Amino acid sequence: MITNNSNRIYFKGYCRGIILIQGQVQFIPVDLIDYINEESREINIEYENFISQNQLKVFNCDTINFKWDSYSIISNVIYELSDHNDFRIINFIQNVLLCKLIIIKINDSNRLNVLLKFLKSEIFVEVYLIIYFTIENKDFFKSIINFPNVTKIFINSDNFTLSSNKIYLRSIPNKYSGNLIHINPNFELISESQYHHTYFNRKLYIGPNGEIKNAPECEETFGSIKDLDSVEDLKEIISTPAFQKYWFVHKDLCDVCKHCEFRHMCVDNRMPFERADNQWYHKIECNYNPFIAKWEGDPGYRTLSECGVISNENEFSIDHDRIAEINKEIWEEE
Q1: Cα separation of 235 and 238, whole Å?
Q2: Would you tell me how many other CB atoms lie within 10 Å of the CB of residue 315?
Q3: How big is the chain by its Cα radius of gyration, in Å?
Q4: What is the pLDDT of residue 172?
Q5: Nearest 5°: CA angle at 240, between 234 and 244?
Q6: How high is the pLDDT of residue 175?
Q7: Kindly report the CA angle at 316 between 290 and 36, in degrees rounded to 5?
Q8: Does residue 56 sit in the same domain as residue 183?
Q9: Per-residue b or e along 245-275, where b marks 16 or more CB atoms closer than 10 Å to that residue's CB
Q10: Residue ranges in the chain whose pLDDT is less than 50
Q11: pLDDT reported for residue 333
């Protein structure tokens, strides 16, 4: 975590910057960030007033000591409950791996009694439940709502009458797919993001057949919990460089992301792929384009290729002139 009491930091993107003031995001011009970082500069009264009002001279992000660590060997586990999996390994996960959060995914109504038995046992980690099928029995939900460790319950339904601040109604896909980008402007995440991937870092996935992965999106499998001689073998797997491969792929190493003003507050489940130049790229394009500061669906949005940006296994290049033309067209209209 951050080791000082700073409550104002700012980050520079390709065409705009962000200042984070007490957890609130405010967009600022790139020119203002360049102005702040210049040791000798011609005085700009408008910028000086803004700097003074927000104490930016004191809280320049370059002066902050971003230091992050966690007592958890694994901070969060995604656990697919099935006939092949049970909860015997959970005690190891919470007591030895010091996990903070267990996300339990349930595809089979026959496993609900096993789930209830687990929730009644001695657990101290936070639990999210993701239920993929419709459950008409409201008494079941009334019972699991009362478990203090269960803090979120995602139900595959658009219409559910039982009211609780723990229940979230949503349509849940049966397969892991899509581009889940989540912006979370907090100092803990920003500190972690300096040297770690904020989605893959210290994550563990146990699939429906017991398969062990870093995350459900990963292709690499590291055996099955059914084949482990002891639970300590799981700790050995997690400790290997191969398992931790994506933990350290932070956004400043990734094409496009390195130019994004949100890069240090973004949780992104897209798989990164490494090029020969030790840089990383994504095969799936983000739904935010930092070169024009537009989200997909916004008026004026363009894809990367339309902006003259190439990012693939062979190269990363930016057509700055093309981007300048598009930004002039987009923002002069607005």
Answers
A1: 5
A2: 12
A3: 23
A4: 52
A5: 100
A6: 44
A7: 45
A8: no
A9: bbbebbbebbbbbbbbbbbbbbebbbbbeee
A10: 1-6, 58-60, 174-179
A11: 59
Distance CA 271, CA 284 (A): 8
3 occurs within a structural domain:
no
Q: Are residues 151 and 229 in the same domain?
A: yes
Domain enclosing residue 53, as ranges: 8-63
Q: Is residue 266 part of a domain?
A: yes
pLDDT of 171 = 57
Q: What is the pLDDT of residue 165?
A: 86
**171 and 267 share one domain:** no
* Amino acid 219: pLDDT: 92
- Is residue 178 within 8 Å of 151, Cβ to Cβ? no
Q: Give the number of domains in the chain.
A: 3
The one-letter code for the residue type at 230 is: S
Q: How do residues 74-97 score in pLDDT, each as one tens digit?
A: 999 999 987 766 677 888 888 889
118 and 142 inside one domain: yes
* Same-domain pairing of 80 and 202: yes
> Tell me, what's the pLDDT at 63?
53
Residues counted in the chain: 334
182 in the same domain as 88: yes
Separation of alpha carbons 34 and 20, rounded Å: 17
Residue 41 and residue 173 in contact, taking contact as beta carbons nearer than 8 Å: no
276 and 226 part of one domain: no
Residue 58 confidence (pLDDT): 45
Q: Do 232 and 306 fall into the same domain?
A: no
- 């997909």: which residue's tokens? 296
